[in-house]
Every structure is written in C-alpha cells, then in structure tokens.
Design goal:
Structural class: alpha+beta
CATH architecture: Alpha-Beta Complex
CATH class: Alpha Beta
CATH topology: Sufe protein. Chain: A
Radius of gyration: 15 Å
Order of helices and strands: HEEEHHHE
Largest sheet: 4 strands, mixed
Strand content: 15-25%
C-alpha cells in the first residue's frame, strides 16, 4: 500500500471515530440488536428500520444507526458500517460483511478504493478484528430480528 493511501485510510478511521455518522437511537427502528466484546469492553447497539420491498422485491434497510462505547476501531467501524448498509437488502448486507471480514482478517484491500479498505491494517492486530466486526454482527442480528446479543466470543473472527 502506498504511503498516500495509508494516510488516507488512517484519516478515514480517525474521522469516523471523531465524528461518527448515524450515532444515536433511531426513533423509527423496527429492529434492534446489541453486541458485546467482553475481551475489551466494546459495546454496540444497532437500530435498524427494515422497509418492506415492493411486491416481488426484497425488503431493504431504510435507515440504521448505532450507539455504544469502545475503542476507536469499534466506533469507527460501526459508523462506517451504517453508511455502507443503508438501502441494502439482507443478502447485500451479508455480502458486504463478508467482504469487510475478508479485509480485516487478511489485510487484502478491496479491488476498488473503498472506505472499507481503511480497515485492512486491522489484520496485523488479531485482537482488534473483534473490535472492527462487533457492530457488523449486531447489524446482521438486527436484520434477522434476532434479539440475542451478539458477542465476539461466539464468532470466529
């Protein structure tokens, strides 16, 4: 990775941590899920509004937000996740998570420049992978309408 791209990615993470997008409780949410990372204390709740699709089309994420506390990686990742998942179907959200998971576990950047690539460096710090994926696990639980708290201890990140 070039130094310029590395600097850009660092700025993306810092910006999302300092000025999180879609933070707070979403009053129109019809799905809520919570995530917990007991190894470092990160917590994340995701509030999601799933909008019914037109007949013959899948439901889509109309809006979502997050709230919680934790390290810069977990907070920045949850913020970025909310910007990436709006308007997506459950299948598209799952595919986007799989792409993100591959980025944080292998360090392989996406083929096209994407804010998700900012988290490629996380792979060098295996304990931080759970921080980066916490909000995503909570969002996927919310999509499934699964109120069981997502815990990083039950995922193989």
């Amino acid at each position: 990775m070039s130094a310029d791209l590395s600097d850009l990615y660092q700025q993306v993470i810092l910006d999302h941590n300092r000025r999180p997008r879609n933070r707070g409780k979403l009053p129109t949410a019809n799905r809520v899920a919570h995530g917990d990372n007991p190894s470092c204390g990160d917590q994340c709740s995701v509030y999601l509004r799933l909008d019914a699709g037109v007949p013959g089309q899948p439901d889509r994420i109309g809006d979502l937000s997050f709230d919680g506390s934790g390290c810069a990686i977990s907070q920045a990742s949850a913020s970025l996740m909310t910007t990436q998942l709006k308007g997506k179907t459950a299948a598209e959200a799952e595919a986007l998570y799989q792409n993100f998971h591959a980025i944080v576990t292998t360090g392989k950047e996406p083929e096209e420049i994407s804010d998700l690539g900012a988290f490629a460096g996380v792979h060098a710090f295996p304990a931080r992978i759970k921080c980066a994926t916490l909000g995503w696990h909570a969002a996927l639980n919310a999509l499934k309408n699964d109120a069981t708290p997502a815990t990083t201890e039950s995922h193989t990140d």
